[in-house]
Amino acid sequence: MNTKSDEKHSEAAAGAAADVDSSFPNGLVASSLGISGFTIAIVAGLGAGNDASDVLGRAIVAALGCYLAGFFLSVIAAHVVHEHLSGFRAAHPVPDATPFQSKRSPVTEGGARNVEKRAA
């Protein structure tokens, strides 16, 4: 097989997989879980009739814990997506398109000028 095209495909797959990791929304997932933990702790604490200062302190601790859990979960999810895409791209490489380039036909070489001349 052609090793240059194989190297190009593996480099392209590695670059695309690196893009997945860098663009994965780790902060968004973590902050969403942190805000959810904070909200749930506030609602549950006030619903149980606890003192507001106790509820707020526990909600802040819950927000921090949920933020950290969300960050670690999103890092794990990014790794799983990266591994899956790397394996898929290795199993299904994109073929080289250079042998399939079509020749220009005389109809398309003149562009719109030929169409206008024939129509007039």
Fold topology:
Layout (H helix, E strand, L loop, with lengths): L2 H21 L2 H22 L4 H40 L14 H4 L2 H8 L1
Textual characterization of the structure:
With 120 residues, the chain is mostly helical. The protein has one domain (3-119). Helices cover 79% and strands 0% of the residues. It has helices at 3-23, 26-47, 52-91, 106-109, 112-119. Helix 1 packs antiparallel against helix 3 (52-91) and helix 2 runs antiparallel to helix 3 (52-91). The protein is rod-shaped and about 80 Å long.
Question: Descriptors for this entry?
Answer:
mainly alpha, rod-shaped
**CA-CA gap between termini:** 53 Å
Helices and strands: which structural class?
Answer: mainly alpha
Largest sheet: none
Approximately what portion of the residues adopt beta-strand conformation?
Answer: under 5%
Compute the number of strand runs.
0
The chain-level mean pLDDT equals 79
Question: Overall 3D geometry?
Answer: rod-shaped
User: SSE order in H/E notation?
Assistant: HHHHH
Q: Report the C-alpha radius of gyration, rounded.
A: 28 Å
Query: What low-confidence regions span 5 or more consecutive residues with pLDDT below 50?
Result: 12-20
Relative helix content: over 70%
Q: Number of domains in the coordinates?
A: 1
Separate helix tally: 5
